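Hi everyone,

Forwarding the result from last night's run.
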Amino acid sequence: MSPAEGKEVSAGSAIEPLRPAVEPPAAGNVDKIRDILFGPQMRDYDRRFTRLEDAVMKEAADLRESTRKRFEALETYIRKEFDALEDRLKAERAERGASHEGLAKRIGDLNDQTSGAHRELRGTILDQSKQIGEEIERRHQELSALLDRRFQELRKDKTDRAALAALFSEAALRLTDEFQVPGVNA
């Protein structure tokens, strides 16, 4: 213990203990201390964020691929239906050209068939678009819930900044012998 450290100073005294001049630590030392204290935790956070980001990206890619496939299937179905309707119309035109008898009846039947096919097609398209919309909404909710869970896990595990700042302040005061416990006269 140095003579300066051994002196007791009362609260009202004008005499201050002698302190050696302390040079501020270099920025590299602070970085090293920070890396020693928080390095593993920050690397763990980085790994978690990377895994979370990868999972979200995979889910988004899967959802995108699933939606693309469904739209392709819907498009293929619609094309087939339109081709079938076109074939029916061509056949009906050929029959009308060959025979004028019963033309009005056939036109009525064709209109009924076309209307029925259109209704069925619109109903099918509506059903499939509802299914796709529900699937997208469900996937969106799953992804949102997954993100919320992951962020809650990360928030639960992170260090409280105020507690950490208080700990460092107390450590600095103790290192400079300025820390005093209230009610204890040293």
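Confidence is low (pLDDT under 50) at residues 1-22.

Cheers,
N.
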